[in-house]
């Protein structure tokens, strides 16, 4: 049943010009960075900022808008003999899949044109972008389903993005300042792990050769995440960031009045 | 230079007098030529008279050869393979020995003896030139020697760990030694100076060494110029030293958690000019350094271009170009007693309305974030995060924390070296 | 099992919209649910459609695979065409939709089938809704303001079809502001006020007890009586 619904949502998403604009945006900005920026490190930094900042914001906004704009569709199918969870899965996948493809294609094509697609760095950037897309669409669904006003939902979504993308690091810094007399490696690594954007950022930095700059703390990070346990923790963490909001959104959806 | 010439001239005059005197009194005035073929190298050397020339042919499997009279040893595709037999391969115990064009291989690693391919022990006027040292424990080892020249040798070793590898060119308690045109690769330290006075290191390449490309300790009045130190485990270290001139050297790609282009520790009155630091995790790290002049030097794509700790005073950094470094200058203090005027910073956002070539607003090269990282190392994990970027912008607009006197009052508008590729 | 509600309560925050509804609906009958604005008509319909989850009590027997419905809003996904929507609902319901083509003809939708919903007028959308509700062979019909926005021809055709389905044994629930429509269609009147059933009886009985000739006047009489 999810499949039937998914096809319909996908058809609807693909007709929306936003997906195309999104893909073109990533293609242009990637090409621009690769073409105009002197030095690969700066191009990578630019791409990193796009993936860590604009992509989550985009996902958050498109996700909340999608939930509100899909109200008609939801009301149409919910009165039919379907399980609400099937509708939810279809709604989420139906918006996430086009955006994953749009981001991946939009970024990959310029990278391929510059012969950089098959580098570990491109792989990490694409992987991080895809995971963050899923994380922020899941969060967007929580926000979009919880707040019935579209404008309110978008506002709250923006705040969530601001918190995770910008303010969270300020909180880490404040904690570090507060406990300046204590060894802060492990707490910092833990706090970084708890935020998907930070986690993605560190993994990108460990891949392009900024790793050496991370010094002792980076060594702690690399030592931990280089181990089997660490990789499991990192992957589990990111999956939790997708899974938990997804589950919360699903529960909200199942109980929500339309 | 003139002192060397004078010394050499005096030596010639001195030798001339000796030769004249001996030729008057004896009949063995003429130096002879010998050829040593395997396996009689030791025999030929001991049979040769002082100032004879010994040509060495072929492949010799021997170690612990002592040269205790002034000889010229010239290899003709000669290989001396120690086969890890122990001891130094060639030990020079006489002045005025010249060794050329010889390949020395497979010196035994010994944890109690400093075995070397060529060892100069308490000698003067020895030349080692155009030799190949392959897989030595130590390469060319000088102790208590003076007025020697080590030139155009190629020294390579298998990279091992620090304790089981020796140094490429090792100088201990030596005076007036010239090291020129050598290539050192895969040693613990490529070139090592301890208690050396008036050493000259020129036109060498030192690369992929386990620890330092060049290591100076307690050595004053030395010059090193036109060298390249590339991809070494920890870069170059100059420590507990004064009166060092470092010019036209290239320090590049020394990248690693504890890797420096140039580590300066407890040094005074040194002069760095026309050098290039590129792609190092730390370009220059200075601690306890005084009255140092760094000028006309290019810092490009380093993690930290210049890390200057609070115990550095009266240093001057000027006419340098800072381009594309993650951090241009970092320090661990809020007040700096060093002068950073007159450099070019690509991070400079100011303007030059009066067109005098200097920016009209001072440049503060220390980012707030760099200061945070110095005082709270774990905050390095926030690098490239948006919050930090925002913080830096705010700090640039309303400076509060960054060292107020670590400032460039006359930032150059154009690179001192001109635009480089 | 007959569909019905058992002590159905629905609160939105502090607001109680349905306050203990207990009733049952019968085959081959059309029940008109009436009441002033905010009396809980639409919420009751949405509970029956399981768009709204009861706070307590329950609705039962409105099996969605046996029910066809028209929502009050009459809004459908903008980017889809009527044909897409019919296909979607058909594939969800796994039905050949025996009445679809007839209904499309009846409501004169043929020329609109491939236009996107965004471009259709309110009345046309309402017709699409009517086709969706009626195209399958269902025995429960939940019609929330079915004639809103329909032109007189379409409205009367819709009423004819509903009457026909009733004769075939369907259980029909209908709300409407147009009480004359209900008088024409319905045989039973359920009057809601503040989330409670204040009157339940046949249309004829209502007319005779109130002594009025039209349903509109009869309802007005009940309303004034109950509020005073």
Plain-language structure description:
- The complex is a heterotrimer of chains A (258), B (421) and C (228).
- Chain A has 258 residues and is an all-alpha fold.
- Chain A is 85% helix and 0% strand.
- Chain A is globular and about 60 Å long.
- The two termini of chain A are 21 Å apart.
- The mean pLDDT of chain A is 87.
- By secondary structure, chain B is mostly beta strands.
- In chain B, the strands form two sheets. Chain B has a 24-stranded parallel β-sheet that branches. In chain B, strands 3-5-7-10-13-16-19-22-25-28-31-34 form a twelve-stranded parallel β-sheet.
- Mean pLDDT of chain B is 88; it is low at 24-29.
- Chain C is an alpha/beta fold.
- Chain C has one domain: Rossmann fold.
- In chain C, helix 7 packs across helix 8 (215-227).
- Chain C is globular.
- In chain C, 45% of the residues are buried.
- At the A-B interface, helix 3, helix 7, helix 8, helix 9 and helix 10 of A face helix 4 of B.
Q: In terms of topology, how is this protein built?
A:
The complex is a heterotrimer of chains A (258), B (421) and C (228).
Chain A: H1 2-15, H2 17-36, H3 40-69, H4 71-78, H5 84-113, H6 120-146, H7 150-178, H8 185-193, H9 196-207, H10 215-226, H11 228-255
Helix pairs in contact in A: 1-5, 2-3, 2-5, 3-5, 3-6, 3-7, 3-9, 5-6, 6-7, 6-9, 6-11, 8-10, 10-11
Chain B: H1 2-25, E1 33-36, H2 41-47, E2 53-61, E3 65-67, E4 72-81, E5 90-92, E6 98-105, E7 116-121, E8 127-129, E9 132-134, E10 138-143, E11 149-151, E12 154-156, E13 169-175, E14 178-180, E15 183-185, E16 191-197, E17 200-202, E18 205-207, E19 212-217, E20 222-225, E21 228-230, E22 235-242, E23 244-247, E24 250-252, E25 260-268, E26 271-273, E27 276-278, E28 282-287, E29 293-295, E30 298-300, E31 304-308, E32 313-318, E33 321-323, E34 327-330, E35 337-339, E36 344-345, H3 368-375, H4 386-397
Parallel strand pairs in B: 1-2, 2-4, 3-5, 4-6, 5-7, 6-8, 6-9, 7-10, 8-11, 9-12, 10-13, 11-14, 12-15, 13-16, 14-17, 15-18, 16-19, 17-20, 18-21, 19-22, 20-23, 21-24, 22-25, 23-26, 24-27, 25-28, 26-29, 27-30, 28-31, 29-32, 30-33, 31-34, 32-35, 33-36
Chain C: E1 4-12, E2 15-24, E3 29-34, H1 41-48, E4 56-60, E5 67-70, H2 82-93, H3 100-106, H4 122-134, E6 140-144, H5 152-167, E7 171-175, H6 179-185, E8 188-193, E9 196-202, H7 203-210, H8 215-227
Parallel strand pairs in C: 3-7, 3-8, 5-6, 6-7
Antiparallel strand pairs in C: 1-2, 1-4, 8-9
């Amino acid at each position: 049943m999810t499949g039937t619904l998914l096809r319909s949502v996908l058809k609807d998403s693909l007709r929306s010009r936003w997906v195309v604009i999104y893909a073109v945006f990533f293609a242009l900005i990637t090409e621009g960075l690769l073409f105009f920026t002197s030095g690969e490190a700066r191009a990578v930094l630019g791409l990193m900022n796009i993936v860590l900042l604009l992509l989550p914001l985009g996902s958050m906004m498109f996700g909340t808008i999608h939930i509100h704009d899909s109200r008609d569709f939801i009301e149409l199918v919910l009165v039919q003999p379907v399980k609400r969870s099937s509708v939810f899965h279809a709604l989420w996948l139906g918006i996430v899949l086009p955006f994953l493809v749009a981001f991946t294609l939009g970024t990959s094509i310029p990278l391929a044109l510059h012969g950089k697609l098959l580098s570990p760095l491109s792989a990490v950037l694409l992987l991080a972008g895809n995971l963050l897309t899923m994380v922020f669409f899941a969060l967007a669904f929580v926000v979009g389903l919880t707040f019935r006003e579209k404008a309110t939902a978008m506002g709250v979504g923006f705040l969530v993005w601001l918190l995770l993308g910008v303010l969270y690091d300020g909180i880490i810094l404040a904690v570090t300042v507060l406990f300046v007399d204590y060894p802060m490696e492990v707490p910092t690594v833990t706090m970084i792990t708890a935020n998907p954007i930070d986690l993605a950022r560190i993994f990108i930095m460990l891949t392009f050769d900024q790793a050496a700059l991370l010094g002792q703390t980076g060594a702690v990070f690399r030592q931990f995440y280089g181990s089997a346990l660490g990789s499991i923790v990192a992957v589990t963490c990111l999956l939790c960031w997708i899974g938990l909001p997804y589950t919360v959104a699903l529960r909200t959806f199942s109980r929500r009045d339309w | 230079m003139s002192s060397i010439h004078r010394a050499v001239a005096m030596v010639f005059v001195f030798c001339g007098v000796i030769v004249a005197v001996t030729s008057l009194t004896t009949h063995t005035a003429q130096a002879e030529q010998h050829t040593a073929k395997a396996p009689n190298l030791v025999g030929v050397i001991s049979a040769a008279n002082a100032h004879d020339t010994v040509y060495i042919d072929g492949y010799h499997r021997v170690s612990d050869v002592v040269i205790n009279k002034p000889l010229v040893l010239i290899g003709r595709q000669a290989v001396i393979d120690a086969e890890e037999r122990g001891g130094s391969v060639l030990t020079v115990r006489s002045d005025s020995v010249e060794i050329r064009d010889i390949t020395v291989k497979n010196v035994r690693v010994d944890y109690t003896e400093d075995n070397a391919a060529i060892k100069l022990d308490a000698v003067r006027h020895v030349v080692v030139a155009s030799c190949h040292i392959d897989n030595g424990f130590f390469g060319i080892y000088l102790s208590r020697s003076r007025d020697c020249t080590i030139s155009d040798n190629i020294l390579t070793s298998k990279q091992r760990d620090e304790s089981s590898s020796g140094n490429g060119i090792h100088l201990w308690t030596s005076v007036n030694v010239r090291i020129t045109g050598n290539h050192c690769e895969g040693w613990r330290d490529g070139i090592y100076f301890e208690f050396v006075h008036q050493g000259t290191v020129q036109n060498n390449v030192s690369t992929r060494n386990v620890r330092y490309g060049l290591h100076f300790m307690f050595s004053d009045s030395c010059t090193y110029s036109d060298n390249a130190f590339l991809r070494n485990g920890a870069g170059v270290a100059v420590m507990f030293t004064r009166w060092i001139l470092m010019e036209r050297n290239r320090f590049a790609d020394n990248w690693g958690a504890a890797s420096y282009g140039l580590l300066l520790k407890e040094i005074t009155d040194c002069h760095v000019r026309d050098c290039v630091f590129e792609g190092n995790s730390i370009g220059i790290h200075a601690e306890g350094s005084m009255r140092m002049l760094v000028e006309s030097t290019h810092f490009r794509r380093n993690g930290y271009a210049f890390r200057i700790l609070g115990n550095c005073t009266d240093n001057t950094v000027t006419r340098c170009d800072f381009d594309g470094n993650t951090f241009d200058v970092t320090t661990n203090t809020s007040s700096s007693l060093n002068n950073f005027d007159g450099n070019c910073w690509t991070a400079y956002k100011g303007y030059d309305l009066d067109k005098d070539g200097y920016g009209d607003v001072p440049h503060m090269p220390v980012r707030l974030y760099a200061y945070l990282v110095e005082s709270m190392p774990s905050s390095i994990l926030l690098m490239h995060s948006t919050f930090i970027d925002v913080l830096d912008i705010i700090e640039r607009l309303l400076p509060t924390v960054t060292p107020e006197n670590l400032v460039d009052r006359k930032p150059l508008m154009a690179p001192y070296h001109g635009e480089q590729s | 099992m007959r569909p019905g509600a058992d002590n159905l309560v629905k609160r939105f925050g502090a607001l109680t919209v349905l306050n203990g509804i207990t009733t049952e609906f019968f085959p081959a009958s059309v029940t008109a649910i009436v009441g002033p604005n905010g009396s809980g008509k639409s919420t009751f319909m949405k509970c029956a459609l399981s768009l709204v989850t009861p706070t307590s009590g329950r609705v039962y027997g409105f099996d969605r695979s046996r029910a066809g419905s028209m929502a009050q809003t009459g809004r459908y996904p903008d980017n889809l065409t009527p044909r897409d929507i019919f296909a979607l609902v058909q594939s969800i319901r796994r039905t050949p939709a025996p009445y679809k083509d007839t209904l499309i003809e009846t409501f004169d939708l043929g020329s609109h089938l491939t236009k996107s919903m965004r471009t259709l007028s309110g009345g046309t959308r309402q017709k699409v809704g009517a086709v969706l509700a009626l195209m399958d062979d269902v025995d429960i019909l939940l019609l929330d303001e079915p004639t809103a926005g329909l032109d007189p021809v379409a409205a009367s055709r819709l009423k004819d079809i509903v009457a026909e389905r009733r004769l075939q044994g369907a259980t029909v629930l209908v709300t409407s502001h147009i009480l004359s429509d209900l008088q024409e269609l319905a045989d039973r009147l359920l009057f809601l006020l503040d989330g409670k059933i204040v009157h339940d009886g046949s249309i004829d009985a209502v007319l005779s007890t109130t002594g009025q000739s039209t349903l509109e006047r009869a309802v007005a009489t009940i309303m004034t009586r109950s509020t005073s």
